[in-house]
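Weekly structure sync, notes
Attendees: PL (lead), two postdocs, one rotation student
Agenda item 3: pending single-chain targets
PL asked that the sequence for the first pending target be pasted directly into the notes so everyone works from the same version. It is reproduced below exactly as submitted, 190 residues in total.
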Amino acid sequence: MPTNVLVSGAPERIAQVSQVLRAQDCTVVEVDDLANVPAACKEAGENAFDAYLQLPATFGIEGSTALERLHHFYVKGVLARFPAMDAAVPSLKPGGRVTVVAWSLPAEVATDDDIEARRALFRVLAHAAQADAGDDVAVRVLGSSASAEDIVAAGLGKESSSRPTSVETLSGVSYADWRVELLGLVSVES
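Predicted structure, written out during the meeting:
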């Protein structure tokens, strides 16, 4: 039975990961712009994919100040992952897998606080995907140094226990409880 995988991100990363996927007889849908993930998912329909691999995207960081550059990076980069994930989750089959691969900023604008902030946002993205998908979908967050082989192994659920690739694991909090807490905060502050 073929495995259908949705892969989004920078074209060069997609090419590397897709090559490994196709070597494992997977069918791959490639989307090189996060803004186009909803259209690809709508075209594929519900329960179309066994896995979604959300790789780092490529875009030029804009702005003349550090604040402007960081704002642009978060809005057009990190936060752009949320609408893409929102579209991808309903297109996953029961038992599907989501793998989010983090990326790093250039050294001149990356600080320890920024690294922690990005990790936190990737965990929030993963928790939100898990909350919407339910316990039948496995969600992983991998670091930017993960190889194409590690990404595919996580995406297909073939990770070796001797080679952990996850930089973050989701907490033991019930996803239903997490979602209720999140929605409770929204209603209190609205």
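Discussion points:
- The chain is about 45% helix and 20% strand.
- The first helix runs from residue 11 to 23.
Action: rotation student to compare against the earlier draft before next sync.
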